[in-house]
Amino acid sequence: MGEAAGALARTLELDPGNAHAALALAQVRFVSGLEAGAWSRRALELAPEDRSAIGSCATVLAGEGSKRAAENLLQQSLARWPDWLDGQKSLATMRYLGGDHEAYARGYAAACRALPQHLPLRLAWFRMVAQARDWPAATRIIEEGEQLFGAQPAFAVARVFIASESGDTERAATLFSATQGLADPVRELAWIRHCLRTGQPARAIEPALALTRTASARLAWPYLSLAWRLSGDSRANWLDGSPPFVWHRDLEFSSGELEELAVLLRSLHTARSPYLEQSVRGGTQTDRPLFFRQEPQVQSLRRKVVDAVREYVAALPAHVEGHPLFGTPRGQVLFAGSWSVRLQGEGFHVSHTHPQGWISSAFYVALPPAAQLGAAPAGWLEFGTPPPELGLALPPYARVEPKAGRLAMFPSTMWHATVPFGEGERLTVAYDVAVPTR
């Protein structure tokens, strides 16, 4: 990242009017944890009609503490371009992170009033509200859409999704039957979850297997694991391992080094709420790629993590064709994401997986004293626990006890959750290793 910043700065010396270089430099500096506001404003001055520059400038402003200015910039731009979907999502997300959980999506509503015949805009509004599991609001958005557009395949999928995920199993069964001819991955995943939720795991196996042969494979494998386990199918052991493919090591950090890292990480937790799509409950998650930052505390951790990932990969069994963990090349270690999570008392992670990753992780930086944490397994990391909304009686495969300096790694397709704890602060770093392509 440092070399990239230097090259872009030199580009701007040679070509001061290069808006793309100014925008790229702002982005590189921002994800590196360096001041980027001046460069993002310069990019915006050079290309005032460029929505990428506007969106980047708003992100930088918000990230550097000027959230009001960031919202104003997006609002002004969306007044001109209400159909700018990325801008609408950014503004709604910014409002939600700031604690507005009631009217965060009002920009979508205004845009749909201004452009009532814009179907993608309405569907984007629905997806934003559905992520918050606000089923009455999601239903109203679809009902209004049907009045404007008539029957649409996307509306049919939305209705079956709402019925299934809101727990209206009888209506969901009727809508699934009526939409059998729709080849849509959202519908298929909703059907798989419906089968699991209603005690029909055997019916979930074939559609889940079919999805593993598509671009939605990494979303499907975790549900296939549940269906196989509930059906007593030995392929669950083939997929998840018996014992499960969970690994942990205590990295070499002194207490002073961990405290320095903790101080830095705490300064990065500025949001008031987690993102809608995240698993965090009772805490926050940072929003930039943590391992791009240039502070020595972060780079020291990154080096040790890379060594640990290589050790984990070297210990994996031989290549197994078709397996999501063993069936990929094992070359360069690249990260699909890296972040920090700060949980407060009674905080936890709901059971989830990481569809963008190959190998996922948790590194413990700071923990409450034992008396505050609570009796074991309070605060522990659990593997194989189904999402609670499915109502499945499956015990965890394994647990990892939290300890400052401990790193746990596991397949990104494996369900994992954190048990709620008593009081204090649980501060971690996590990352996803990207699925290797060579």
Walkthrough of the structure:
Strands 1, 2, 3, 4, 5, 6, 7, 8 and 9 form a 9-stranded antiparallel beta sheet that branches. The two termini are 23 Å apart. This protein is 50% helix and 14% strand. It has 18 helices and 9 strands. It is globular and about 65 Å long.
Order of helices and strands: HHHHHHHHHHHHHHHEHEHEEHEEEEE
Largest sheet: 9 strands, antiparallel
Alpha-beta classification: alpha+beta
Radius of gyration: 23 Å
CATH superfamily of one domain: q2cbj1_9rhob like domain
In what range is the share of β-strand residues?
Answer: 5-15%
Distance between the termini: 23 Å
Which outline best applies? globular
Number of helices: 18
CATH architecture label name of one domain: Sandwich
CATH fold-level name of one domain: Jelly Rolls
The percent range for helix content is 40-55%
Task: Supply database-style keywords.
alpha+beta, Serine Threonine Protein Phosphatase 5, Tetratricopeptide repeat, Jelly Rolls, 9-stranded antiparallel β-sheet, 18 helices
How would you summarize what this structure contains?
The chain has 438 residues and is an alpha+beta fold. Among the domains are: 1-81, Alpha Horseshoe (Serine Threonine Protein Phosphatase 5, Tetratricopeptide repeat); 247-433, Sandwich (Jelly Rolls).
